Amino acid sequence: MAKKTTETPMTIPMSKEKQKSIKKLYSGGVPSLRGTIIKIIFLALIDAVAVSVAFVLLAQNQWIALVVLLAVLVIVNWLYLRPAGLPAKYLAPGVLFLLAFQVYVLFLSTTTAFTNYGSANNGDFNQALSSIVDGNNEPASNADPTSPTYNADFYDVQVVKNDSNGQYAFLMTQANTPLASPTDTPAPNVLVGGPSENLRQLQPTDFTLSNTPNDVTASMQFDAIAAKGYTLVKDPTKLSGAEQDKLSNFHILLDPNKRFGQFLMANDLQNAVPYNLTMVWDEKAQTLTRQSDGAVFKPSTDGFFHINGNLKKESISTGWQVNVGLKNFISIFTDPELLRPLGRVLTWTFVFAISSVLTTFVLGLAIALLFDYEKLRGKKLYRSFMILPYAFPGFLSAYVWRGLFNTDHGFINTTILGGLKITQHLPTGDIHMMIPWLEDANWAKLAVLLVNLWLGFPYMFLITTGALQAIPSELTESATIDGASPWQSFRLIKLPLLLVSLAPLLISSFAYNFNNFTLIYLLTTGGPTLPEEINAKYDAGGTDILITFVYKIAFSAGKGRDYGMASAFSILIFIVVGGISLISFRRTKALEEMN
Amino acid sequence: MTATTDYSLIPTKRATTPLRWFLSTGWRHIIGLFLILYAVFPILYILSTSMIGSADIQNTSALFSNVTFDNYWALLDFSGKTMLRVTADSSGAAGMVYSDNPFDLWYINTIIIGLTTSIGSVFLSALAAYAFSRLRFKGRRGGLLSLLLIQMYPSILGLVGIYTILSAVGRVFPVLGLDSSLGLIMVYMGGSLGTGTYLMYGFFNTVPQEIDEAAKLDGATHTQIYYGIIIPLVAPILAVNVLLSYIGTTSDFVLASIVLTKPQSQTLAVGLQAFISDPYSKNWSLFTAGAVLAAIPIMGLFLYLQKHIISGLTGGAVKG
To answer: Which among B172, B190, B221 is the nearest to A29, CB-wise?
Structure first.
């Protein structure tokens, strides 16, 4: 009786008490004291962490992040403190991560696709300007005191630590101010400045000169070695590498108010040398002038400085991020530099994905049929061996096969093929050589397919074995009685049934291989580079599939990163893959089972 | 008459002669042995290479011709660096040089990132799967559908976005930014709902609903039902999911290579690449030793759990 009630609770007349218990059934029960305490402790912990994070955001003026954080915090507390809304309590943790790292990422990719974001354009206008001005400089003059071009704006440097903020700074004594003794007057010009403080002159009362002259060859030079409020760093080479880098590359502005003006740099942390700018920024006219030839660069709409703002004329390679509208998408369909490799890459992507599914399926099926024999002993042992390639971590497999396929020392060429040489006909004469597995585009394609066969056949073996066992034996038995040969009963009965049940898995295997980044990238990095493509704008090797090609556009170190273009590709691929998936899902039962 | 040609299908009590045995079963074993060879030779090869002294690496063709464990000791010295043997080749000078490739740190990083991610993401997706399987709410169908779609979104395509997010976050909180394990773990967890929920949803559905309804009538709260009844019942499946997620996470090259740039923070998948950028150089035998060490725990677990894994693979499409 009780069982029946739980199955159809609403149709049977019941007592008030029972109604109450039914209501409890659908509300999630009365919370226990222990549960409530645990819940409150958890919420308190989350709130505490979030609030401390909020203070950091507040201190750094990250207003948008702060608002988002507080909104999420309020929502989370509300979700878990109210009695209703049970599903949300179970879904919220996962959904939060999903929103942050998938949905928001998708959104970012989409917006990036409409910009020129890349290694050349990775910041805003001011960042680009700083990078250009700071990056174009040359030492103002010779730092050798014996040279006729010796410059007086050359300083002897001591690294000191500012006692008030603990940051490092430079204590600099102007060179070429000879004195008879440290107490001689006028005292030399002594400056202090560094990453955390602007350059300023010290009064003679605020510093102490060394007792021993620094420079004995030219003239008696006494350097400041102590200053009020600073502690001398005896051996700057003992500072951390990062700290040394920061100091030795720091631009000490001679005029702190002029951001893009002349500066000193103490590369060796012992001498500070003045540098001249070779690109001078005119704040009023908003132009950059190249000192060597007087060329005037103006900021242009494409996110670069061009001569006189003319888009067709020379530009500076560092730019800033701007919206370019549909330019990236249009390039994909019109840029010949992109279309040429793209056609080849797309063809190979399909060939690779389809052949991978076919070869692995045929081998897997053959093995499944081979072992699908009742009297065969040791099936479990065979299966354990067969799944080894599947159990072996995929990234390692790719690396291992890369070694196996090595032309000169690889196990395949030296041992399995026993040093077999092939003959290649070249205009200069025939060459006998071992098979250049990963160095020749065609051999590399074969190698990729062979490796994927090894990686993929165990999976196909497992799923076809499962599917074969699911076919009722009466079917094949009756076919045999009706006179069908084993081949006929396989081709006409087993295979069609197998294909019906395995179709969804074969489709997803195709989709997986279509985007099989790990195999291609780790085995061949998409290479080898084709001889005719060495100077191409976009790097597309002989085995590059679409996804590795896009990855190279976005992240390849050599040819410059183009995030905008890569994002535009990403969107197109998602539309294609998502479309194919939607259609194939509609054809499977996946949707019906959800109800 | 043709129907009787296939003798194997007719139940007989005839004595099996060796020839008959060979024609029906024996040849399967012979092919089977060849297949075993095919399946294991790359694995045997790296096992063998990992035990070769680096001086012999370029001219050893027979497997297991000389066995030494030097490569393993070089990797496992726990100094945070990896010894890299310079062989007496071109320069003629042999000696020890420490490289900047801390294998032991990679191993530890891999385990930390893999375990945290797999346990965390199975936890998250199990919670969601429970909601989808047991609770009825608005948007349930739509939610499941969107998860299916998101699952189809190749994570590589989101790299630019992930890179942007992590570098922005890292400027404020370095522990969550680029080059941090925690940041990478968060990114992986973001993908967990897409990959894990749908699989687990299927398994949760196989647990009879009557069990938790009975518990509800006895006054159990939903958390008691979830942690006390459902989770113990699906524990083996959860273990398999943790394993699969662990394998997936630790095999990931792309995301990890973008996020982790410093050698000390890298995982095996990213770091080991440094050993093989020049195949058959002095690093190749070190790499193979590293590969063996990296693969052993995963393969062991895989073989141990193979029954569950296979049922998980085929459960969706094949009821076999």
So the answer is: B221
Average pLDDT over residues A173-186: 73
Of A117, A404, A550, which is closest to B42 when you measure between CB atoms? A404
| Of the partner residues A21, A401, A470, the one whose CB lies closest to the CB of residue B320 | A470
What is the chain A residue with the closest CA to B32? A382
DSSP output for A31-96? PPHHHHHHHHHHHHHHHHHHHHHHHHHHHTT-HHHHHHHHHHHHHHHHHHHSSS-HHHHHHHHHHH
Q: Which of A53, A361, A392, A512 is the best substitution to test chain B (most B C-beta atoms within 10 A)?
A: A392
> Cβ separation of B284 and A458 shorter than 8 Å?
no
A120 found inside a domain: no
| Domain membership flag for residue A290 | no
Q: Do A230 and A353 share a domain, yes or no?
A: no
Of A246, A277, A308, the last residue of a domain is: A277
Residue B25 lies in a domain: no
**Phi first, then psi: what are they for A284, rounded to 5°?**
-70, -50
How many structural domains is chain B composed of? 1
Share of chain A above pLDDT 70, in %: 88
Can you give the pLDDT at residue B113?
94
What is the helix, strand, coil percentage profile of chain B, to 5? 70, 5, 25
pLDDT confidence of residue B60: 55
Residue B223 lies in a domain: yes
CA diameter of chain B: 84
Q: Is residue A100 less than 8 Å (CB to CB) from chain B?
A: yes
CB A422 within 8 A of CB A433: yes
Task: State the CATH number of the domain containing residue B181.
Answer: 1.10.3720.10
Q: Is the pLDDT of residue A330 over 60?
A: yes
List, in sequence order, every residue forming a beta bridge with A425; answer none if it has no partner. A430
CB A157 within 8 A of CB A272: yes
From residue B82, alpha-carbon distances to A100, A332, B47 in Å are: 37, 45, 19
Write the pLDDT tens digit of every residue in B172-218. Answer: 888 888 888 999 999 998 887 777 787 788 788 888 888 888 888 88
Chain B contact for A216, CB < 8 A?
no
Q: Which residues between 33 and 52 in chain A have a beta carbon less than 8 angstroms from any beta carbon of chain B? A: 35
Domain count, chain A: 2
